[in-house]
């Protein structure tokens, strides 16, 4: 796939107008307040992962609606003092997988909290968290149109709230240093991380790789790949719902969360990415309100930097670990 989006010099300056509803902040304040009515009830149960250098715990906590969300918690074996911590969010369709899938930050000396994504985990890595709530509208296969006619019903209202609650659950563990907690994820995980960065103050950093869930309208109009194509396919059948659909999506657009985020951020973008187009990533990055850096992978698709980006992150995280 050749370069198909804006040239890199234009991308670096690309700052599109945000579609933001007047009650955006009130919507999310009410959402998080409703979620806070349910106790977190975090559980950390020792788990035999056959990893002698890492202590592993099966995690459960209450997310949106009090629904129990699964996860993992990993820490260097025998650690007793509070540690810098990374809360990880997962890409589209994937689940929490197995503890050995999440070793990079744990062996770098970080406590590592992995949030399962409700309703997902049957495409790639396995998951353990159902989504007990269904949208009231007909939907395409996947998650992008579940509840899409009303922001109160939309699937990602629950997922983003779970993401905020995952930070709160991680902070209950005695090995987590609250002053050195970083969030991160790629693709859908990057979209969740962007939302949490805009909703949850007090973070030490955010690692946002090739983020999904940002610039919905542009992405839907310039690529014909999943998952954004789920929106186009829905609208191709449900003609006349365009305004209603994009109004709902405006409450979940990464650009609007980025404009409210203040924690230092490390982004990545791939210039041949036809899943999350580079202009949508730069739209989020250029609106991000906090200190920020971006790593550009010119010849990559949605895989982005992969292990090269992990190396970038580990070096970036060293300053977090030092409390810098």
UniProtKB/TrEMBL annotation:
Record-level Gene Ontology MF annotations: cephalosporin-C deacetylase activity
- Stated EC number for the protein is 3.1.1.41
Query: Which EC class, in a word?
Result: hydrolase
The active site consists of 187 (nucleophile), 273 (charge relay system), 302 (charge relay system)
Extract the InterPro entries matched here. AB_hydrolase_fold, AXE1_dom, CE7
A single Gene Ontology biological process assigned to it is: polysaccharide metabolic process
Q: Name one Pfam family in it.
A: AXE1
Q: Which UniProt keywords apply?
A: Hydrolase
Q: Which Gene3D superfamilies match?
A: alpha/beta hydrolase
Q: Which residues bind substrate?
A: 92
Q: Which residues belong to any copy of the Acetyl xylan esterase domain? A: 1-319
The record's annotation in PANTHER family points to: CEPHALOSPORIN-C DEACETYLASE
The protein depicted here goes by the name: Cephalosporin-C deacetylase
């Amino acid at each position: 796939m050749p370069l198909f989006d804006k040239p890199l010099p234009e991308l670096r300056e690309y700052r599109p107008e945000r579609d933001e509803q007047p009650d955006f902040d009130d919507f999310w304040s009410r959402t998080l307040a409703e979620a806070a009515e349910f106790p977190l009830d975090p559980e950390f149960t020792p788990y035999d992962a056959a990893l002698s250098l890492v202590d592993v715990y099966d995690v459960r906590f209450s997310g949106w609606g009090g629904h129990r969300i699964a996860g993992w918690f990993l820490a260097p074996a025998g650690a007793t003092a509070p540690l810098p911590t990374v809360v990880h969010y997962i890409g589209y369709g994937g689940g929490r997988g197995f503890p050995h899938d999440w070793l990079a930050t744990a062996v770098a000396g970080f406590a590592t909290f992995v949030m399962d994504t409700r309703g997902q985990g049957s495409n790639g890595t396995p998951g353990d968290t159902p989504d007990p709530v269904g949208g009231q509208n007909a939907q395409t296969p996947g998650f992008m149109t579940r509840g899409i006619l009303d922001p109160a019903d939309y699937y990602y209202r629950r997922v983003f709230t779970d993401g905020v609650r995952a930070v709160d659950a991680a902070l209950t563990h005695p090995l987590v240093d609250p002053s050195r907690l970083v969030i991160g994820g790629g693709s859908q995980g990057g979209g969740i991380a962007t939302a949490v960065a805009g909703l949850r103050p007090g973070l030490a950093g955010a690692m946002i790789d090739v983020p999904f869930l940002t610039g919905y309208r542009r992405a839907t109009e310039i690529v014909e790949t999943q998952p954004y194509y789920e929106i186009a396919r829905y609208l191709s059948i449900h003609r006349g719902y365009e305004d209603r659909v994009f109004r709902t999506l405006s409450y979940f657009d990464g650009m609007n969360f980025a404009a409210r985020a203040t924690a230092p951020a490390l982004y990545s973008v791939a210039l041949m990415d036809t899943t999350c187009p580079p202009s949508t990533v730069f739209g989020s990055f250029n609106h991000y309100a906090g200190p920020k850096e971006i790593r550009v992978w010119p010849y990559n698709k949605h895989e982005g930097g992969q292990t090269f980006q992990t190396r970038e992150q580990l070096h970036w995280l060293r300053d977090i670990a030092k409390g810098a």
